[in-house]
Specification:
With about 240 residues, this protein is mainly alpha-helical. The protein contains 6 helices and 2 strands. About 45% of the residues lie in helices and about 5% in strands. The protein has a two-stranded antiparallel ribbon with strand order 1-2.
């Protein structure tokens, strides 16, 4: 196996760990929790689940070898004057495009919240996350670049950026449910190293808020969350 193949294998293994972690968060979501606030300012749990669904679809596209270039629909914000606006929470995971790239609107509309007691969109996302993992596991024998319009990204890059997205939103979901479901320290440490490579000043404040300050002895999870602009102590 060449270096690219080893990198892809490591990236898919990290994505698997991130998905396993987030599946644990999705298991505690109930229909009654869909209207709760989340660490993503202005978003309810339903909005966050819609966003996660868009991220999983991007990973599904990536596993096929091509990610369509279009702007996925953003969940509608709930205005709250007590919460600062953080535009980084509006864009689901997809690789950065050049500034001149066109972003036509997609016709798909976000799922609407289901009435309490009649359904749980988290169950659907659990199935989708499992399917994503299966697709990327099957891709282990194909380390060819993934196309995004006329650009090419390596498969390991797409896998690890997806792992960052999935794991951190797993934490968001658990906190919204009032549950302390910490990101495993070893995984958080690895994700932080990768986040420092892939999340730069060019991403702030459009995709991520500015880095927050945490104590020097903070846990790997708290350093990861703070680097991505989240308050590890939410809700304060």
């Amino acid at each position: 196996m060449g270096e690219q193949g080893k990198a892809l294998e490591a990236g898919v293994a990290l994505l698997e760990r991130a998905i396993d972690y987030t599946l644990g968060s999705l298991r505690i979501v109930t229909p009654a929790a869909l209207c709760r606030p989340t660490p993503c300012p202005g978003w309810t749990q339903q909005h966050l689940l819609d966003h996660l669904g868009a991220s999983l679809q991007t990973l599904t596209d990536g596993a096929s070898g091509h990610i369509p270039v279009f702007q996925r629909p953003h969940p509608k914000r709930v205005h709250d004057p007590q919460r600062p606006h953080h535009p980084q929470q509006a864009a689901p995971f997809y690789p950065r495009r050049p500034h001149h790239a066109q972003k036509p609107r997609h016709a798909h509309k976000p799922r609407q919240p289901e009435p309490t007691g009649t359904g749980n969109p988290a169950l659907l996302l659990r199935d989708e996350a499992t399917q994503v993992l299966g697709l990327w596991t099957a891709r282990l024998t194909d380390d060819r670049p993934i196309s995004v319009n006329d650009h090419r990204l390596t498969s390991p890059m797409v896998a690890v950026v997806g792992a960052i997205e999935i794991a951190v939103h797993g934490w968001d979901i658990a906190r919204s449910c009032g549950d302390h479901h910490p990101i495993p320290a070893l995984m958080a440490d690895e994700l932080l190293d990768l986040a420092r490579l892939f999340v730069t000043d060019a991403d702030r404040p459009t995709r991520f808020a500015h880095e927050l300050t945490v104590p020097a002895n903070a846990s790997p999870q708290d350093r990861l969350l703070a680097y991505l602009g989240r308050d590890p102590n939410w809700p304060a």
